[in-house]
Design goal:
Layout (H helix, E strand, L loop, with lengths): L3 E5 L9 E2 L16 E5 L1 H5 L4 E5 L8 H15 E5 L4 E2 L3 E6 L21 H12 L6 E3 L13 H8 L2 E2 L14 E5 L7 E5 L7 E12 L2 E3 L1 H4 L18 H4 L12 H14 L16 H16 L8 E11 L6 E4 L5 E3 L2 E5 L2 H11 L8 H8 L13 E5 L2 E5 L31 H7 L9 E7 L5 E7 L3 E9 L4 E10 L2 E7 L6 E9 L2 E10 L1
Parallel strand pairs: 1-26, 4-18, 7-8, 7-12, 8-9, 12-14
Antiparallel strand pairs: 2-19, 3-5, 3-6, 4-17, 10-11, 12-13, 14-16, 14-17, 18-19, 20-21, 21-24, 22-23, 22-25, 25-26
Length: 532
């Protein structure tokens, strides 16, 4: 039987296996036993291995009320009120972290920067929904660009809801007293990490509100968002691998491992030998060696992540009502600019690694190609790599329905992550990864087999295909209908080997099609079923 790709042209997903729950929330002895409290929905709490998808039908990213209402509804379903001392006390601090990074404003197009941050209305609606379940102390913490909170409306939003939004990165951490919490992690880069309170506090429940967009690290999801919970200097992961012992005040030095640069280089060398995809690529700007830079970022991220009790006292959410491609900010492949897409899928669950694996897959990437996920497993922070090994549930009206991952609509979002030679600056990291071999041998298999497969649709509903070319040369792609008639052809001269993205811009109607890719002495085929 031929392998087939099933591509859906609308945002609705097929579902199977209804799972409902009427269980009471379990008691948590770590928190004060008071009469009134709150907790995660019992089904979510009972399934930390699962990733949940919440589909919406928002038409425009400017629909403030629609986005607020959708996120408020989601939070009111994800959390339950408790009594009799069960769950978390209502005196628990809600320590939230949206992805509110530096979003430069375009005076000619004020809406151009919306996709950079977790949507303001989503954050307000979600945290208001949590607050309505009982806890009243809501804190918002973000290390990046507090000078933009006023012009972007974040400060006003926090004020009208009585959310505690405080700039804790304008000063060195030792000048902030109890507003900073230190935790020993003994990691590869950090010995000890400073977090902005109440992040990591024993009386806090963490709400991680990430954004579905691309960045230099791939898809900026739940894990990277936690980078911004760290205090001044501690959160500067993205500045390359410059020696902090030369750049930072000496008071910071004891918090870093004295030999961290040498250790990062040692680990990068080991991971190149282990076959980590794209781990020895170069960048087109300093610090040039993209693999080394990414090794440093991933290790530092894992250090900071290890100190946050997000899986034991928290929940992670990736707002994907609209997503963004490009560099995570303004720049991208569309005449030099990034683009936002109405994705209408919000991803949530207890395990940030599992969320991010699914987020990468939904964005058209192959998770096995990202070193962070391998390093997370190596360091005992994760136990899964194959997205199809993660249980997926569609969340609707407070109930979960189990679905197959490949029934969900993917929205290809290109990134500039570890660009290969000859590859477009903004690209998909969707080269095939042999999960079966990796799971059976523990080793990464190098794939040089020709292949072609459909991965989703672009913003204009054109079919997007992933093509692996084993050797340099002229390449043809043919699309034949069910009668064997040629309906579309693409020819690329002197194409470099590796993975490439093909957009079938001639699609006309649903049906069964055969896709063929041919080179000098090699070919591959794949069957596609396109349905509306």
């Amino acid at each position: 039987m031929k392998r087939r790709d099933f591509i859906k042209l609308s945002s609705a997903a097929g579902v199977a296996g209804v799972v409902g729950s009427r269980l009471d929330a379990a008691a948590n002895p770590l928190y004060a036993q008071q009469a009134a409290g709150f907790d995660l929905h019992p089904f979510i709490k009972a399934h930390p291995e699962a990733v949940f998808i919440y589909l919406t039908d928002i038409k425009e990213k400017t629909d403030k009320k629609g986005i607020y209402d959708a996120s408020y509804k989601l939070a009111s379903e994800m959390f339950v009120s408790t009594s009799g001392g069960k769950g978390y006390s209502n005196s628990t601090k809600i320590a939230s972290k949206p992805n509110w990074t530096c979003a430069p404003q375009d005076k000619e197009d004020p809406l151009a920067s919306l996709g950079i941050d977790t949507d303001l209305n989503f954050v307000e609606g979600y945290l208001s929904g949590v607050k309505a379940k009982g806890p009243q102390q809501v804190y918002i913490r973000e290390s990046a660009c507090p000078n933009q909170w006023e012009p972007l409306g974040y400060a006003d939003m926090a004020k009208r809801n009585n959310f505690d939004l405080k700039n804790l990165t304008g000063q060195d951490p030792w000048d902030l007293g109890d507003d900073i919490i230190y935790k020993v992690v003994d990691g590869v880069v950090f010995k000890e990490v400073a977090y902005m309170a109440p992040i990591t506090a024993l009386d806090a429940f963490h709400v991680n509100l990430a954004k579905f967009k691309t960045h230099g690290m791939g898809v900026t999801g739940a894990i990277k968002n936690l980078q911004g919970t760290c205090a001044r200097r501690f959160s500067s992961f993205c500045g390359g691998y410059a020696d902090i012992f030369r750049q930072f005040d000496k008071k910071y030095h004891p918090y870093w491992q004295p030999n961290y640069l040498a250790k990062v280089k040692e680990l990068q060398t080991q991971h190149i030998e282990a076959g980590y995809p794209r781990w020895n690529e170069k960048m087109d700007k300093p610090p040039f060696n993209s693999g080394f830079w990414m090794e440093q970022w991933a290790q530092r991220m894992c250090d900071a992540y290890s100190g946050i009790p997000i899986k034991t006292a928290g929940i992670s959410v990736i707002e994907g009502i609209y997503g963004r491609d490009g560099d995570g900010f303004q720049f991208g492949p569309h005449n030099g600019k990034a683009m936002d897409y109405m994705c209408n899928n919000t991803i949530f669950g207890i395990d940030p690694f599992r969320l991010d694996i699914i987020a990468h897959w939904l964005a058209g990437h192959e998770p096995g190609n990202f070193g962070l996920f391998h390093i997370g497993i190596e360091r005992g922070l994760s136990d899964v790599l194959d997205p199809f090994d993660i249980p997926i549930y569609l969340w609707k009206n407070g109930k979960a329905k189990k679905i197959k991952l490949d029934k969900l609509t993917r929205t290809p979002l290109v990134t500039y992550y570890n660009q290969k030679a000859g590859e477009d600056r903004f690209h998909l990291c969707n080269e095939p990864f042999d999960y079966k071999s990796w799971k059976s041998t523990g080793k990464i298999a190098i794939n040089d087999e020709p292949s072609i497969k459909a991965i989703g649709t672009d913003s204009e509903n054109h079919i997007v295909m992933d093509m692996n070319v084993p050797q340099k040369g002229d390449v043809y792609v043919d699309i034949l209908n069910s009668q064997g008639e040629l309906v579309w052809r693409m020819h690329a001269n002197d194409l470099e080997p590796g993975n490439h993205q093909v957009v079938w811009d001639g699609f006309c109607q649903p049906g069964m099609y055969n896709a063929y890719v041919k080179g000098m002495g090699w070919d591959a085929e794949r069957q596609m079923v396109i349905y509306a």
